[in-house]
Amino acid sequence: MKRFIGICILITLIFTLSLCPTTVNAAQYPDTLRVGIYYGSAAVTAVDFKSSEGFSFGASSGKDYFPFRTVSNTNITVTKSPVCAYHVLYESYNNAEEMNSRIDALNSSGMSVFPAFYNSAYCVFGGNFSNQNDALWEAENSPVKGTPVAVSATALQIKDSSNGQVLFIMDIPSYGLAVYNANYHNPDALLTISGSASGTYRGGFECKSLSGDSLTLVNIVPVESYLYSVVCREMSPSWHVEALKVQAVCARNFALSRINYHKQNGFDVCRTVCCQAYSTTADQSKNVHTAVDETRGELLFYGSDLVQAVYSSSMGSTTESVEYVWGTPFPYLVSVDNSYEDTANINNGIWTKKLTKSRATEIMNSRGYNIGNVTDIIALEYSPNGRVIKLCVKGTNGEKIFERESCRTIFSEATYSQKYTVSAGGITTPPIVSVADSNGTKSLSLSSVAVLSGNNHPESVSGTVVATDGKATTTHRPTTSGGDPDTFVFSGEGWGHGVGMSQYGAKAMAEAGFGYQDILKHYYTGTNIQKAY
Ligand SMILES: [Zn+2]
Predict the structure, then answer these.
(1) Which of 153, 238, 341, 424 could pair covalently with 505 via S-S, beta carbons 3.0-4.6 A apart?
(2) Ligand 1 centroid vs 220 CA: distance in angstroms?
(3) How confident is residue 468, by pLDDT bands cut at 50, 70 and 90?
């Protein structure tokens, strides 16, 4: 502990002298992030939006928003357009302004028309039919003549949730359908969505039709607003504000190093711990806002490289060097002292978990490792910091060696970190045998005695022995105790991958009086903080 304090004071002095935040080129960092809300197997068929101030909607390129129209409706639903949906195309324009004034004029005259992005133009549409003849009749008999059109299979539509009235059609697959609060100029204006991630969010939403009948939903949110939600999901909002600032800088670095990380689904970062936990505006304490606002634009660099500021919950007495977890060494992700962390008194800091042989077999089979029934799990090699870096799983049909992070993830239900020991449940004890010498008779473990062979050489014996005194024979078998022989016991410390910042370590350092810059520089060796915007 003393040595660690000494190091920190030294680091504090060095960086106090050399590190006033300097400014880097802000243009290289996006203002907004695209955060995946519903996607992949969790994509949805419809999303309901609520806004007491009304909505603005239009097209989204992912980077830019092209507003089409603002409405006062307070409840809308976005879905795929039904297959064989027909509408009437009345007119098309080169800009939203002309389109909107024509829509206003026609609606005032008693018609019911709405905007559409169709054939790369700002269009005035009307009607909503399931067969072409009805659309044709409407097109020929309405006060303004139009043309019946069928939208494509990837078209999306907005309807008023209460009366089903169509409000917008988006039929250009290279753009997403964007939904914002009517005050879309305020990027922090709020919208409420339905579904498993329901609640209120800052920024806007992009709906995309990427596969089948489902919708991918992406939150387009300013980076700093995104951080309000991440900081209070990744740390308790009640923690010391300096710890929350550490989390804010790490989360900003992490997010900006993951632009396009989920590009196959059309966004940067997802809302789960795959990237960083993110959700609604709930639970954002005053300290969380302070932590984000007072570190606004601050990023951690190693030289001119943006630091990949990975972190995890707790790590025990030392953090881990990245090469023992993900293979490639990074000069700023090396093992450092973590003795401020009160590992013994935090959730899942010290843990013991059990795994039966049959469950281990199930896991191996489900991952495609067909080694038969698991018979043993052996930690073959440890890093200098005590984390398992080579794990052998033996089975009745072979064995499989796991290395580095997979030593934690293969049996993740029994291993919260890589820092553990594993033993086969049940300790095998050799039988106790009676041994007579000139001093009398003693009871000794078979492992500590030898027998004389035919040529008078002492030889050790093991397993089951049969003894005789010339009158009767006695069988002595090894006994198994201390647990179920069909169960492996994992005992370890820390929760997570163990590289970079320990969240509980940062909490303890903040409570001990360290500032967020000192804490960051402690966990990310040789780095410096610069203000990007
Ligand atoms: Zn992710």
Answers:
(1) 341
(2) 15
(3) low
